[in-house]
Design brief:
Layout: H1 3-30, E1 33-35, E2 51-58, E3 61-75, E4 85-97, E5 104-111, E6 126-135, E7 140-148, E8 156-162, E9 170-175, E10 185-189, E11 195-201, E12 206-212, E13 219-226, E14 233-240, E15 243-249, E16 260-264, E17 272-275, E18 278-279, E19 290-296, E20 303-309, E21 319-328, E22 331-335, E23 339-341
Parallel strand pairs: 18-22
Antiparallel strand pairs: 1-23, 2-3, 3-4, 4-5, 6-7, 7-8, 8-9, 10-11, 11-12, 12-13, 14-15, 15-16, 16-17, 19-20, 20-21, 21-22
Bound molecules: (2R,3S,4R,5S)-2-(hydroxymethyl)piperidine-3,4,5-triol.
(2R,3S,4R,5S)-2-(hydroxymethyl)piperidine-3,4,5-triol binds near residues 52, 234 and 254.
Length: about 350
């Protein structure tokens, strides 16, 4: 074979390998499949650390905020009545994505502060279930989270504000919404621009829905105690076709229990419990997971329910379970699926 021919063949070979490599890369970038209950990595190959989280859609991108857990888990032995497993709080993490599959780490947007004089944000404290809303009137991003003492006795909500979805969020402090204790919590922004804070109160006996101020940073005194004495936590609220839905768990610490949902015609109205929406293997234990958020896909009549499968002895390795929500008229159905195509 002449040298020219050899060179041409080599060139062809290199071209073919490049094409294959770029096709595989493009295919990987286009994969829009969510595989539940695995340790998810961000686009840089690092573990996604965003537990008890929620998602905000803003200008074509999804922003996922969650609890950034420290890497060692320990049990707080002084708490005798339940298994108080803890990982130090690193703060609130943020990841962004255009497709809900490939996530870019945007940083810890509200970090814990080891040398802090502010006891709320010390790593030993509880910084859980962060949720963020965008306020059109002020142009600010408002973050609420559950702030607590390590033994969960304090029961407060904390608020922080940022100019960008990727922070940094400036902490404004903690308080009891409308004077009530607050533990698991979420936010919901209605189609009219009003926003609500929903949290477990009365030591997890009852849920509390509070209308927020116009700037979303405080409560207004307008509230409703709902599902009274039903002992629900891990609330996740969404709206579909004029009805409001609230998905929640029972209260068994980090251990799984049966989910339930309720429906209402207005957030401050009467919520009617409907029972467990889960179906498939382990539905009675919510697939060994606990609700944290329900995401409506932007501009679509499609919803994804987000759960955490807690690994109580290694909290940082708790996994994410994201499942499609389907509807039979107003009945909610969440069926186990290891893989979900978007
Ligand atoms: C259940 C809550 O839903 C979690 O967010 C966390 O606070 C654990 N309890 C702690 O046991």
């Amino acid at each position: 074979m002449g040298n020219n021919r050899k060179l041409r063949l080599l060139g062809l070979g290199v071209f073919a390998v490049c094409m294959l490599w770029s096709c595989t890369k493009r295919q990987a970038a286009m994969t829009t499949e969510i595989v539940s209950d695995e340790l998810w990595k961000d686009v840089d190959g690092q573990l996604i650390n965003a537990h008890g989280g929620g998602i905000l859609h803003y200008k074509g991108r999804y922003y996922w905020y969650g609890e950034c857990k420290g890497d060692s888990t320990y049990r707080l032995e002084r708490v005798k009545s339940w298994e108080c497993w803890r990982a130090d709080a690193k703060g609130v993490s943020c990841y962004s994505s255009a497709d809900l599959v490939h996530w870019k780490f945007e940083g810890i947007v509200l970090p814990s502060v080891p040398q802090d004089s502010l006891p709320d944000l010390h790593p030993s404290q509880i910084m859980e279930r962060p949720k963020v809303l965008y306020n059109e009137k002020t142009g600010k991003f408002v973050l609420w989270l559950h702030i607590d003492s390590p033994d969960y006795e304090k029961g407060m909500a904390g608020v922080a504000v940022a100019d960008k979805p990727t922070g940094p969020f400036v902490y404004r402090g903690s308080f009891k919404p409308n004077g009530f204790d607050c533990r698991d919590q979420t936010l919901f922004k209605d189609t009219d621009g009003r926003a609500y804070h929903i949290c477990a109160t009365d030591w997890n006996e009852t849920l509390l829905v509070s209308l927020l101020t116009d700037d979303y940073t405080g409560t207004t005194g307008v509230y409703k105690r709902i599902l009274v004495h039903e002992k629900r936590e891990a609330p996740a609220v969404f709206k579909r076709k004029g009805k409001y839905y609230l998905l929640s768990s029972g209260c068994t610490g980090w251990d799984p229990n049966e989910a339930s949902y309720a429906v209402a015609d207005s957030l401050l109205g009467t919520w009617v419990a409907q029972g467990n929406p889960c179906s498939g293997p382990n539905a009675k234990k919510t697939f060994y997971a606990q609700s944290t958020f329900v995401l409506q896909l932007e501009g679509e009549d499609r919803y994804i329910a987000l759960f955490d499968r807690w690994n109580k002895k290694n909290l940082i390795h708790s996994t994410y379970i994201w499942l499609p929500v389907s509807f039979e008229k107003e009945k909610l159905v969440i069926t186990w699926k290891k893989r979900m195509m978007l």
